[in-house]
Amino acid sequence: MSNNNVSVQSKLASGGATIFSVMSKLASEHKAINLGQGFPDFECDEKLKELVAKHLNEGKNQYAPLAGLPKLNETLSKKMERVYGMPIDPQTQICVTAGATQALYTAIMAFVNKGDEVIIFEPAYDCYTPQIQLAGGVVKPYNMTYPDYSIDWDEVKEMVNDRTRMIVINTPHNPSGTVLNKQDMEALEEIVSDTNIIVLSDEVYEHLIFDGEEHQSIMRFPKLFNQSLAVFSFGKTLHTTGWKMGYIVGPEYLIKEFKTIHQWNVFCTNSFVQFAIADYLAEPKNYEYLPSFFQEKRDKMNELLKDVPLTPKVAKGTYFQAYNYSDVSDMDDLAFAKYLTSEIGVAAIPMSPFYTNPPGDKVIRLCFAKNEATIQAAGERLMRLKG
Ligand code: PMP
Question: How sure is the predictor about 172, in pLDDT bands with cuts at 50, 70 and 90?
């Protein structure tokens, strides 16, 4: 066999592994408790597993329709009308995807052309920028900073011009744990009205929202919805991040074009899991428990870590909480996250990789989608920071 490798030029300037892969590898090398990557260390509902097994064994193993199984899209349509009051046509306004990541990728590929500008709010979930770059778009980052991570919409308005094609929002927000309120959404609606801007709304944490806050889905704003796409993930709602299943919702004319690209991207996703989710989410109690379930986990984390010298920005949503460590170290956040992982034995994610131009905040992100025993053990190790 020849060793003559063909030349490879990455289409992505940044290349390399994501911060999640880097920190998870370090965590396993040092046997650290992994509060870095966002995945539950507990199982999904047994009933859901039984449904998956049932449909698998009953032979639901051939291609599903491109837009998703009609039964699943019916379930989702009813759920969205129930939760957000917006009627969604199951046939023309929903497309089931291989996780939210593929929904975001396909939406960006479908609508962003070479030279188009896309405004994103940073710290931002790390797939947006490379996806926009692959589409030939230009990322225009807006910096949100610790502790409020708030948005001044007048400044956003200043960033908009004729080349702006898309604005990507994410609420509840990963990695900061903040949420957008009604006034934020109204300000956004005003900025994009009478423009050609598409709003791509990442709502994967729709049900992980606390302290009685209501999730401000794009679906609560009919005028805004007419030029928007909303992205969801079953991984977050069902504690099944490994299944990589999600969906996208929007007005018919945008979903039609989305599906044109989707058919050459994946065409459809696995069928037996779609059958199972269609049955499972038809029962509202199977998602209505989520806010209190995760709020309890957040509160437990705050109780167990109350003597640890890290200052939390109490999360309003998601299963992440931002922590300021300036009381214990001057290190930059990447160095501090590596130190926590290798020396203290708790893996965290630094904030700076979520920015194009990091503001230098001394902040890391911890995940609380964990069993109490995991968080307690992490808390005991973190007490070593007291020195
Ligand atoms: N958006 C955000 C904000 C996320 O946190 C995640 C998952 N961590 C995704 C999208 C991707 O979701 P999925 O695993 O369904 O692709």
Answer: very high
Atom of ligand 1 nearest to the CA of 236: 15
Using alpha carbons, select from 308, 286, 304 the residue that is nearest to residue 50. Answer: 286
| CATH code of the region 19-38+288-386 | 3.90.1150.10
Determine the atom of ligand 1 nearest the C-alpha atom of 318.
5
Regarding the beta carbon of 233 and ligand 1, being less than 6 Å apart is answered yes
51 Cα: distance to centroid of ligand 1 (angstroms): 24
Is the C-beta atom of 125 inside 6 A of ligand 1?
A: yes
235 in helix, strand or coil? helix
If you average pLDDT over every residue of the chain, what do you get? 96
271 C-beta neighbours (distance < 10 Å), count: 20
Least Cα distance to 21 among 142, 127, 171 occurs for: 127
Domains of the chain, by residue range, sit at: 19-38+288-386, 46-282
For range 260-273, the mean pLDDT:
96
Burial of 299-313, coded b for 16+ CB within 10 Å and e otherwise, reads: ebbeebbeebebbbb
Is 241 touching ligand 1 by the criterion CB < 6 Å? Answer: yes
Give me ligand 1 centre to Cα 184, in Å: 22
* C-alpha 319 to ligand 1 mean position (Å): 12
Report the chain's terminal Cα–Cα distance, integer Å.
Answer: 56
* Token pair listed for 337: 């996250």
The CATH code for residues 46-282 is 3.40.640.10
Strands in the chain per DSSP E:
33-34, 94-97, 117-122, 138-143, 164-170, 198-202, 228-233, 246-249, 311-313, 320-324, 346-347, 349-350, 363-367
